[in-house]
Amino acid sequence: xxxxxxxxxxxxxxxxxxxxxxxxxxxxxxxxxxxxxxxxxxxxxxxxxxxxxxxxxxxxxxxxxxxxxxxxxxxxxxxxxxxxxxxxxxxxxxxxxxxxxxxxxxxxxxxxxxxxxxxxxxxxxxxxxxxxxxxxxxxxxxxxxxxxxxxxxxxxxxxxxxxxxxxxxxxxxxxxxxxxxxxxxxxxxxxxxxxxxxxxxxxxxxxxxxxxxxxxxxxxxxxxxxxxxxxxxxxxxxxxxxxxxxxxxxxxxxxxxxxxxxxxxxxxxxxxxxxxxxxxxxxxxxxxxxxxxxxxxxxxxxxxxxxxxxxxxxxxxxxxxxxxxxxxx
Amino acid sequence: xxxxxxxxxxxxxxxxxxxxxxxxxxxxxxxxxxxxxxxxxxxxxxxxxxxxxxxxxxxxxxxxxxxxxxxxxxxxxxxxxxxxxxxxxxxxxxxxxxxxxxxxxxxxxxxxxxxxxxxxxxxxxxxxxxxxxxxxxxxxxxxxxxxxxxxxxxxxxxxxxxxxxxxxxxxxxxxxxxxxxxxxxxxxxxxxxxxxxxxxxxxxxxxxxxxxxxxxxxxxxxxxxxxxxxxxxxxxxxxxxxxxxxxxxxxxxxxxxxxxxxxxxxxxxxxxxxx
Lengths: 329, 275
Known about the structure:
heterodimer, A: mainly alpha, B: alpha/beta, 4-stranded antiparallel β-sheet, nucleotide-binding (chain B), cell membrane (chain B), EC 3.6.3.27 (chain B)
């Protein structure tokens, strides 16, 4: 009895599937050639070529920029020796008594970046630790978009914030502070970079597997001990990458320093003085009325090349750090 | 305290009693229920973990044995929405470790745990073992060195590790990493050691060494081990608890459970007819 019923059901199934087969045959032909489908082949090749061109384009642009910077800088270095460029302590290419020493611009860049990093790295890391290890789900869901919004504010707004709010505030505490200073620009630049550092650091920390944290908690560790002694070391490569990105942003930042740091080249390591950075100088000259091809105009390419080399060094450093601290869970 | 098991064992078969010496209670579980949000994962479990004995928790996947184990060191507190109901009385304090008044960190200070997958920290072998000691504020080099050596010896890893204490722990093999995790848990002299399927990620040779280690350790520490491997439970444990969908079906002396289980279901599971 049972057997026959099962048999019936089976034959019913077979009927249905036979019907399905019939229906399918209307759409899909029963036989297909095994030969290479020419149309499909061409379509695949076209898609592949488009993807390849898109990738090639970015590589091409990078090389084009480097080529332009190097070739234009060559014109500059025909007039100014590399030695003078690297050792002269004055940068006055637009004066009658022209000096072409990059050091004042480098010092401005380094000081403003250091101030910015002194703000962004500790704060960004603390925020990341809080969001990744302490914040309840609801808080994180609200705080993260706001933090990312901070990164979406136009840099020119930050520039005016530095000039019109932060500088007067600092002058309240340090009455001698001039109206333009590396300190004010650097502090605001630091605030601007926080989201980049915290967001990447948090991603790195959250990718640390839970069983590693549980191992720490199981020995009686607190949340803070677990975060600092296990999660941070375990995500070191990601954190290093975040820091390098922050440094690159600080070195290349233009608008805030142009507006709030003053634009005079000044060889100083004192953040309370006004100074120009490499980027501000390039803005200044690009917007000026120097004739193309003049040696003064040519200086911006040499400055640009210097900037490129500085960021390149940090990117290579970041790459090496990432390899050194490679995660092995 | 005279335990249930003695009366049970005496009633059924005297020869199955494993030890002639009296066994003291370490943890007494009373009516334990556990909830993941709305889902009830453990249903009124009552049993006793005896001091300096190995107790195995067995049962098919999803039966709640790991959930049960993780109640003992309040691991569920790390995630929101979990709820305990009932008691786990820890002796000699005679205190319910699930009580709100009890600090889970203090519980974990005294109850160690070894996980399914070896989870050494991204530190040196030495620092891995010293981790729990440093957490407790012990930073004197001499004390750390002594404790680390003792723990590594007890975890049968000293011979292999003594010349490479400053190597990164990830350079050890899987079995060595698991023994390192056992050393890490032993370094702080826990009263109770929880093992959550400690050999499921290891090859047979490493499994054998861990099992041997567990047998050696039971003179020093009370052990509660979750395993899906019944032969392992039979080999290493003195007591066995069989669980099924959140309920404790049978608990008793391992030999009794494996030779003469009282419940048909336990017998079916042990003989491999289901699970």
